[in-house]
Q: What sequence folds into this?
C-alpha cells in the first residue's frame, strides 16, 4: 500500500513531522530502528543556549546567529515559523504542559549543579529557573544511581548570576524504605512516585525542608504517565514549589515526551513501525519511489510519494563512519557535508571545544530538501530534519531539540505546501 509520506526515524524530528502530516490527512508511515534520543535527553527544547556566551533571549539573537551561520539548520527559517513550531508542540503534549517561549531562556539546575539555558521545558521543571536568584533545596533518594544532592547543591550554592543575584542551595538526602529493591533506575523511581503511599511518605519527609526555600529540586522521576498529578500533589503537600532536575539516562521526562507524541501520532492515524532498519531506496530519475527495510528477516519495499529523513546523527545510526574515517549517510547514501579532509583533524583534544567533525551532516535548502555541494536539490521528493542535518553543533550551542522540532515542522509545512 503506497503512503503519501514515509518518515524514517522516530526521534523528536521524525515524530513531529509525521504527526503534522497525518493531521492534515496524509497517509503516513514511520519506519525506525528503535526509539530516538528522547529516551536519553531531558526532553527540554533547548533552542539556542550559547553563542558563544550564554544567550538570554533566543528570539533576540537568532537573526544575527543565522546571518553569521548560513549553513546552520536554523538558517532559512524565520522566527514566526520557529515560534509556531513551539506552540504546535505545546498543543500536542497533553498529559502535562510545556512552558516557556523563544523570548527568554530559563536557567535550570543540572544534576551536577551547573545552570543550563532552556527555552521550552516541562512545567515540572520550570520552578527551577534561578533567574533573579533562588534559595534551593536539592533532594533525592540515596538509592537513586547517579544523582547526588550534596554534589549538585555544593556546586550551585553561592553561584552569582550576571545581574548580581545569588543562588543558594542545600542538600537533603532521602532514605525511603524500598524493601530491598535493587532496581533503582530513574524508571523504577518514577513508578514508585505514582504510588500514593510512597508520595505521602515523601511529602512528610520533605515538608520540614521547604521552609525558607524558594523551591525544592528532585530528580526528574516524578511519575511517568501521571507526572502532572504527582508533581502537583508534591507541591501542594509540601507547600513549596517543586521542580525536576534531569538525571542521567534513561530519561523519564524524555519518555513522557515520546509517549505524548506517540499518542498524538496514533490519534492522527499514522502507522509507526519500530524494529526495522531502512537499508536503501529505490529511485526513478530525480524521485525516490520507495525505501527498503530489513524487518522480518527479509528486505521489504515501502512505496511512498514523499520521504523524510529523520535518522539523527552518528549516535543513532543516521550517519556512519568507518575505521578509515569515511562518513556515509545510512539510508540514501546522500553526500555528507562538513566532513574534514583525510589529513585534517576530526576532533579537538578538548571535549568541550568545537570539533571539526561536529557539524557534519546533510546539507539542505531553506525548505529542508537535501542539496549537493553546489546547492542543487538531490531529489524532488526528499526532505530531511533533525540531528542528521549539517552545520550545527548542538552540544556547544544547546540547540539539539530546538533543531529537531523546528526543522521537523519546516519539512512538514514544505511537503503540505507542495502537495497543495
Ligand atoms: C544523552 C543526550 C542528552 C541530550 N541533551 C539534550 C538537551 O539537554 N537539550 C537538547 O535540546 N538536546 C539534547 N540532546 C540532543 C537531542 O536529544 C537530539 O539532538 C534530538 O533529540 C535528535 O532528534 P532526532 O529526531 O533528530 O534524532 P534521534 O532522536 O537520534 O532519532 C533518530 C531516529 O532514527 C532512527 N534511525 C536511524 N537510522 C535509521 C535507519 N537506517 N533506519 C530506520 N531508522 C533509523 C533511530 O532509530 C531513531 O528512531 C541530547 C542527546 C543525548 C543523546
A:
Amino acid at each position: 500500500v503506497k503512503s503519501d509520506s514515509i518518515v524514517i526515524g522516530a526521534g523528536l524530528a521524525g515524530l513531529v513531522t509525521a504527526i503534522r502530516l497525518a493531521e492534515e490527512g496524509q497517509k503516513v508511515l514511520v519506519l525506525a530502528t528503535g526509539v530516538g534520543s528522547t529516551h536519553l535527553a531531558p526532553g527540554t527544547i533547548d533552542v539556542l543556549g550559547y553563542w558563544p556566551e550564554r544567550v538570554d533571549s533566543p528570539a533576540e539573537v537568532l537573526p544575527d546567529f543565522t546571518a553569521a551561520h548560513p549553513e546552520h539548520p536554523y538558517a532559512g527559517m524565520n522566527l514566526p515559523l520557529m515560534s509556531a513550531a513551539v506552540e504546535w508542540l505545546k498543543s500536542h503534549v497533553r498529559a502535562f504542559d510545556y512552558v516557556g517561549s523563544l523570548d527568554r531562556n530559563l536557567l535550570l539546575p543540572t544534576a551536577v549543579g551547573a545552570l543550563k539555558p532552556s527555552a521550552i521545558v516541562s512545567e515540572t521543571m520550570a520552578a527551577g529557573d534561578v533567574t533573579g536568584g533562588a534559595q534551593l533545596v536539592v533532594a533525592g533518594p540515596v538509592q537513586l544511581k547517579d544523582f547526588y544532592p550534596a554534589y549538585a547543591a555544593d556546586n550551585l550554592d553561592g553561584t552569582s548570576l550576571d545581574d548580581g543575584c545569588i543562588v543558594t542551595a542545600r542538600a537533603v538526602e532521602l532514605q525511603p524504605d524500598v524493601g530491598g529493591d535493587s532496581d533503582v533506575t530513574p524508571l523504577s523511581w518514577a513508578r514508585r512516585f505514582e504510588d500514593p503511599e510512597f508520595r505521602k511518605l515523601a511529602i512528610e519527609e520533605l515538608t520540614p525542608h521547604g521552609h525558607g526555600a524558594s523551591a525544592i529540586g528532585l530528580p526528574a522521576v516524578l511519575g511517568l504517565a501521571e507526572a502532572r498529578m504527582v508533581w502537583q500533589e508534591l507541591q501542594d503537600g509540601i507547600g513549596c514549589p517543586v521542580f525536576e532536575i534531569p538525571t542521567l539516562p534513561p530519561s523519564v521526562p524524555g519518555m513522557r515526551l515520546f509517549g505524548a507524541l506517540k499518542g498524538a501520532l496514533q490519534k492522527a492515524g499514522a502507522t509507526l513501525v519500530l524494529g526495522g532498519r531502512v537499508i536503501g531506496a529505490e529511485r526513478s530519475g530525480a524521485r525516490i519511489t520507495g525505501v527498503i527495510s530489513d524487518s522480518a528477516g527479509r528486505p521489504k519495499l515501502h512505496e511512498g510519494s514523499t520521504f523524510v529523513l529523520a535518522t539523527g546523527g552518528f549516535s543513532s545510526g543516521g550517519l556512519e563512519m568507518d575505521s578509515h574515517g569515511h562518513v556515509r549517510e545510512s539510508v540514501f547514501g546522500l553526500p555528507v557535508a562538513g566532513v574534514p579532509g583525510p589529513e585534517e583533524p576530526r576532533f579537538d583534544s578538548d571535549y568541550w571545544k568545537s570539533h571539526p567533525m561536529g557539524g557534519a551532516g546533510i546539507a539542505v535548502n531553506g525548505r529542508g530538501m537535501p542539496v549537493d555541494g553546489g546547492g542543487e536539490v538531490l531529489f524532488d521528493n526528499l526532505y530531511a530534519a533533525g540531528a542528521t542535518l549539517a552545520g550545527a553543533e548542538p552540544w556547544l550551542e544547546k540547540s539539539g531539540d530546538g533543531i529537531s522540532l523546528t526543522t521537523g515542522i519546516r519539512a512538514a509545512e514544505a511537503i503540505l505546501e507542495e502537495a497543495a
